[in-house]
Design a protein that fits this description.
Strand content of chain B: under 5%
Strand content of chain A: under 5%
Oligomer: heterodimer
Shape of chain A: globular
Largest sheet of chain A: none
Helix content of chain B: over 70%
């Protein structure tokens, strides 16, 4: 660390170099400015380059090699295998493909449930807390935001305790006569359970085929497992506070006049919320959804702390599978390949987010005429 | 009137749901094992005991984990303050050649999801020979694009006339930065200190891949392994929850002291 720290001497030596060959007046100053600029950003460049850019290059190589985890991945004994690692995951037909497909399914259900629910809840919290006449505003805001600052490990430990078979959640459910499941240890898919209620316990012949990534349709439509639902609740619980803050900031940018105008026009509270406020929050909603999409594809900490992918692999996520494949099974090429496929998924979503953020720059009035025309 | 009381009722119920998990953690950590499982809802222990904390502090590696987390969080925070403000200042105020490219690269780098980098970071850490060392735990965490943006935005808000005066007095770029501009940036520095401390205190995945040594286990890693049973302890909820409570306390104190600033910063950081 100390080696990369630019000392005051280093920069001040540069500063008085006025005599350098300069095409015009002030040229020397711009040279020294260039040097100072580069000296100032160099520590950051070095660290970002070493731990962000270089790693990507190395992992790209590992994902197309047969490196076994010993020695340098650039040693001459390491062979090039082309797309073999990717092929095993996408069309291999073996356990690797099945696990990967399962992890994608698990995470997809997680995303599908967490993103809409956390967006709706955080918007609801923001609208409730933002009322001008509300007493104890600060307390409520703090209460809703606090879970966002604590560590995911600590929260996971608490949730595992709340959701044990005879834990707090099931005690509360028992008050209303519901016999709760053995949450964290229950691998049954929610949709399978619902189908079971209607007497469909085994896959109908049409759903036994497995054309998509080697996982039968019946497995794809299983829904999130009861165990995964605990992580879904937890994600909504921990992220809604952060997104609530985004919505509050956006709500405060909306001038009170518009709301008053709608009130004068005779709109009631509900109409004002759904016809005036929410349409004006559209850019923020879009941002929250995209951030949610990016975040929910990276579930790792909670799975590592909680279930390690179990029960019956129903909480396996691509991020955790990538870790497990590399660090536990020592299958580095395949682990890196999983990481790159996950990267591709997230990049696609990030592009969407950039697009969403660009819309923020559109002047308010323009946005309205656009909306009116539509 | 009825609508208002309904709002309050709704808010109170929601607040209870949000606060309850933290209250029950504290309460359970003071219960004996059997009571923790038998009455998981009661907020007041029938038999009050500090057995869980005694075990944590006297008969486990918990104090070591705590010490490691403190070391890492403090060094990372100090490092980020310095590097972020240097880079932020250059990007805001020094019109050097290549600034646009660096800025663009930074935006691109910010988009790379951390989880994807686990394997690659491990490879680099191994190659550099800093695996199983504090250097391996700390140095990669010093890369912090979001913090650079916060500093850059702040420096842009300082009037340039301040630096002009210093420059006329003959101060070099670093002198101007160090003794004139930086002292003015204390509010922004406090913000990034809080975010850095919180971020590195709560970090887990990087610590998992950066070392194997039992001497370098941090709180998050240790408690996660305790929880998932990798360390082979049964249920022992008071013990686990006590560990969770203690690891939350530093961040909670920071949060309650700097509440307003944290909330503004996290809303701003995501927006910009």
């Amino acid at each position: 660390m100390t080696a990369t720290t630019p000392t005051p001497e280093a920069t001040s030596v540069v500063a008085p170099r006025r005599g350098a060959p300069a095409p015009r007046r002030g040229g020397g100053r711009s040279t020294s400015r260039n040097l100072a600029g580069w000296v100032f950003v160099s520590p950051m460049l070095l660290i970002l380059g070493l731990f962000l850019v270089l790693p990507i290059v190395m992992a790209a190589w590992v994902s197309i090699s047969d490196w076994g985890g010993r020695g340098s991945p650039f040693a001459s004994t390491v062979g090039f295998v082309g797309g073999e690692n990717y092929q095993k995951l996408l069309t291999g037909g073996g356990l690797a493909q099945k696990d990967f497909a399962t992890s994608l399914r698990n995470n997809a259900y997680y995303v599908l449930l967490v993103v809409p629910l956390q967006t709706a809840l955080s918007l609801g919290l923001a609208v409730l807390v933002n009322r001008r006449a509300l007493r104890g505003r600060g307390f409520f805001r703090t209460a809703f935001y606090f879970p966002s600052v604590t560590s995911s490990v600590a929260i996971t430990v608490v949730f595992l305790f709340l959701f044990t078979a005879s834990g707090a959640v099931n005690r509360v459910l028992a008050w209303v006569g519901i016999h709760g499941p053995n949450w964290v240890n229950d691998p049954r898919g929610v949709i399978h359970i619902v189908l079971g209620v209607f007497g469909v316990d085994s896959p109908p012949p049409a759903l036994q085929s497995a054309p998509l990534l080697g996982l039968p349709w019946w497995q794809w439509i299983a829904g999130p497992s009861v165990s995964m639902c605990v992580f879904i609740f937890m994600a909504i619980f921990t992220t809604s506070g952060t997104f609530m803050l985004l919505f509050i900031a956006a709500l405060q940018n909306i001038s009170g006049e518009i709301d008053e105008a709608a009130q004068v026009d005779g709109a009631n509270g509900r109409q004002r919320l759904f016809r005036v406020t929410i349409p004006m929050l559209r850019p923020t909603i879009f941002t929250v959804v995209t951030l949610g999409l990016i975040g929910t594809w990276q579930v790792f900490d909670q799975i590592y702390t909680g279930t390690q992918g179990g029960p019956a692999k129903t909480t396996l996520t691509p991020a955790f599978l990538s870790y497990q494949t590399s660090f536990i099974s020592q299958n580095w090429g395949q682990g890196a390949a999983i990481a790159f496929i996950l990267f591709a998924i997230i990049v696609a979503l990030t592009v969407l987010q950039r697009f969403a953020l660009r819309e923020r720059g559109v002047p308010r009035r323009k946005r309205f005429t656009k909306g009116d025309a539509a | 009137m009825a609508a208002t009381s309904l709002t309050y009722a709704l808010l109170v119920v929601l607040a209870i749901i949000y606060v309850f998990p933290f209250l029950i953690s504290v309460a359970t950590s003071f219960k004996p094992d059997a009571e923790a499982t038998q009455s998981p809802l009661s907020l007041i222990p029938e038999t009050f005991t500090t057995a869980a904390y005694e075990r944590l502090f006297l008969n486990s590696d918990f104090p070591l984990w705590f010490r490691n987390s403190v070391i890492v969080a403090i060094v990372v925070t100090a490092g980020r303050i310095f590097f972020n403000s240097l880079a932020g200042y250059a990007l805001a105020r020094i019109p050097f050649k290549g600034r646009g490219i660096i800025f663009g690269a930074l935006v691109a780098v910010m988009a790379v999801p951390g989880v994807v980098l686990l394997i690659p970071k491990f490879l680099v850490i191994k190659q550099l020979g800093i695996y199983n060392s504090f250097a391996g735990l700390i140095i990669p965490l010093l890369a912090d694009a979001a913090g650079i943006f916060i500093m850059k935005n702040f420096f842009e808000s300082i009037p340039p006339s301040v630096e002009e005066a210093a420059r006329l007095d003959g101060a070099g770029t670093f002198r101007t930065f160090w003794s004139v501009v930086l002292p003015m940036a204390v509010p922004a520095l406090v913000t990034i200190s809080i975010l850095s401390f919180q971020g590195s205190w709560n970090e887990l995945s990087h610590f998992i891949i950066a070392s194997q040594s039992p001497d370098l286990v941090t709180l998050t890693k240790g408690v996660a392994q305790l929880s998932s049973g990798t360390l082979g302890q049964g249920t022992q909820y008071p013990l686990k929850l006590g560990a969770a409570v203690i690891m939350t306390i530093p961040v909670a104190i920071l949060f309650f002291v700097f509440q307003k600033r944290i909330m503004n910063a996290s809303a701003g950081a995501v927006k910009e």
